[in-house]
Design brief:
The protein is mostly beta strands. The chain is built from one helix and 14 strands, in the order H-E-E-E-E-E-E-E-E-E-E-E-E-E-E. It has a twelve-stranded antiparallel β-barrel with strand order 1-3-4-6-7-8-9-10-11-12-13-14. The longest helix is centred in the N-terminal third of the chain and has 12 residues.
Length: about 260
């Protein structure tokens, strides 16, 4: 509840700006799959994002996650984020992301793509221990590359997470890597939908287990200039016995 109150107050505290467009081709993490591109939202833009994600595991109970998030283009090429995921089964969680943790992030884009260089960005994130059974401050650093090949865009995300206070068999640190492509459907007669697909691997939350490795596919649809809808599905074909058999996400982003 502390996380939700903080997010509401932070949102109300942001300066109210005139209506700005929200772009379905600007890819943020978990909207709808676990990847992003190297570009921040424009300076001054505010986005209120939310989604519901389910994880039907091969062993264990199916979990559902609610993903409220605020993004804000604070400066040129700089995006700040406030998030607090809520899980239906918070007591069983291991790893960095606990239910109700207050998540703060900054994405900085270093350059626009040129003929010889891809676009590059870095993300720094901090998880404060406001959630259920959460201890210590967790940190994450991610590098992001985006390169266009005609209308197809390719994306690479590579990151490392450090747990502030690992418990039991939890790893003190874990890496994650994602390769993804995105493609606008219907272009040039229409530019309202972007198809996204990815393959990823990440170290397990507990020592001695295999990497979670899987694929995801999703779509973002521009409903209006302010509203983008998204949906995605995925599965993990390698990993621990409780890895995901089927993942799914539906969400919405609203620009202000």
């Amino acid at each position: 509840m502390r996380t939700i109150r903080f997010m509401v107050l932070a949102f109300l505290g942001l300066p109210f700006l005139s209506a700005l467009a929200l772009d379905h081709d600007n890819l943020d993490p978990n909207r709808p799959i676990g990847m992003e591109d190297a570009y921040a939202v424009p300076k001054g833009e505010i986005g209120l994002e939310g989604g519901v994600r389910f994880n039907d595991r091969r062993e264990g109970r199916t979990s559902v996650t609610f993903q409220p998030q605020i993004i804000y283009g604070a400066f040129n090429n700089t995006q700040i984020e406030i998030q607090g995921d809520l899980f239906t089964d918070p007591q069983s969680l291991v790893g960095a992301n606990k239910s109700g943790d207050l998540h703060l992030g900054v994405l900085y884009n270093f350059n626009t793509e040129t003929l010889s260089l891809p676009a590059f960005a870095a993300r720094v994130e901090v998880d404060l221990p406001t959630g259920v059974n959460s201890k210590g401050v967790d940190t994450q650093l991610t590098g992001i590359l985006t390169r266009s090949f005609g209308r197809l865009r390719a994306h690479l995300n590579a990151g490392y997470s450090l747990l502030g206070s690992p418990q039991g068999q939890e790893r003190p640190g874990a890496y994650r890597a994602v390769a993804a492509v995105s493609y606008p459907l219907g272009y040039p007669t229409s530019f309202r939908d972007t198809l996204i697909a990815s393959i990823y691997t990440r170290q397990s939350d507990l020592r001695g287990q295999r990497n979670h490795t899987g694929v995801e596919i999703g779509i973002r649809h521009q409903l209006t200039s302010r509203i983008v809808l998204d949906g995605g599905l995925g599965t993990e074909f390698v990993g621990p016995s409780d890895r995901a058999a089927l993942l799914g996400t539906v969400g919405v982003s609203v620009g202000f």
